[in-house]
Amino acid sequence: xxxxxxxxxxxxxxxxxxxxxxxxxASTILHDTxxxxxxxKARREEDDGVLSYGRRGTxxxxxxxxxxxxxxxxEAAYLFPxxxxxxxxxxxxxxxxxxxxxxxxxxxxxxxKLCETVLRRNGVSVDYFPWDATDLGPWIRxxxxxxxxxxxxxxTFEVMDLSSLTRWTRDRGLTVIADNTYGSGWLxxxxxxxxxxxxxxxxxxxxxxxxxxxxxxxxxxxxxATLRAAxxxxxxxxxxxxxxxxxxxMRTLNLRLERHQENAAALAEWFAGRxxxxxxxxxxxxxxxxxxxxxxxxxxxxxxxxxxxxxxxxLEPFLDRLEHFAIGASWGGFxxxxxxxxxxxxxxxxxDLPAGPAARFHAGLEHVEDLIEDLARSFGDG
Length: 382
Hints:
Blueprint lengths: L2 H7 L24 H11 L14 H14 L3 E5 L2 H12 L5 E5 L4 H13 L3 E5 L14 E7 L11 H9 L4 E5 L17 E4 L14 E5 L2 H13 L5 H11 L2 H20 L4 E5 L9 H7 L6 E6 L5 H6 L5 E2 L9 E5 L16 E5 L5 H12 L3
Parallel strand pairs: 2-3, 2-4, 4-5, 5-6, 10-11
Antiparallel strand pairs: 1-7, 6-7, 8-9, 9-12, 11-12
Helix pairs in contact: 3-8, 4-5, 4-7
């Protein structure tokens, strides 16, 4: 069955029945015999789809778990109330007191904060490596347990050669954890490139309508069992209404991403021709670092890109004048948003970016000519 068809059928109950799985809200699951209760507890240790207790998820969440696992190409997937919760649980599952974690320097700034606060406080040491490294020899230690990657990089969209990197890590028994929110399982599948865990903030494209908070982590091999144990021990789950809304959003994931990609590519090319702009950061542009690797490993781009304006450009008034781009921290919904950024302020390695104010844009599903006209008005074009 092709992927587009799977999106439509994920979680569908047996027929005759509804097109979507019902929302099952429950904490306690009742039994009429002790034997039934004991049997259920035994079966759930081998099957995450067994309805046993609300903390393990209801059938609505189970349908989404199976969908995400299939979408990402994993053996199992687990759900969390936010993307950051998925990151925190996954990193904690594979690195504890006395362990060493290697993290790509272009990682999401909240992931860096998690590493610098919670993980360090819990006895995990952390080092950051450059995005283009495929040999981690200069940073590895005997106590290194896991590697955290994100491709494209947060805000600046550098593309990693994950297949080369994971060949190196595999020979040394390191677990590789990928933040795959940009690719969202549809454009990009890190597990197929050798990663062990792939994390998605489903708040973005999986939900797709700016009304859901959720995270997911898919895993393969031995990592799936390690992640499962951590999820069960810490009581991580997702409420059934959020699971339902995410599944509903996934029905149109491919179609929405096509439009996001089309709009973002047009806007990136338009910005590249503006005299006020120093650089456009978009993994689909041929000049972008790692663009050829992204073209090899991924199936397109999403709606995100960043723009570096020339030094002295009045960015804040420019953004305030926009009508179709609201100011917002998240992205991946149907709407266009923009956010001023300072992507290099907490990085430890050097990056070849021009000086000047920068902004991250997310191209929504509006007509692209309306978006371009809005930007042109804000620049002061007649």
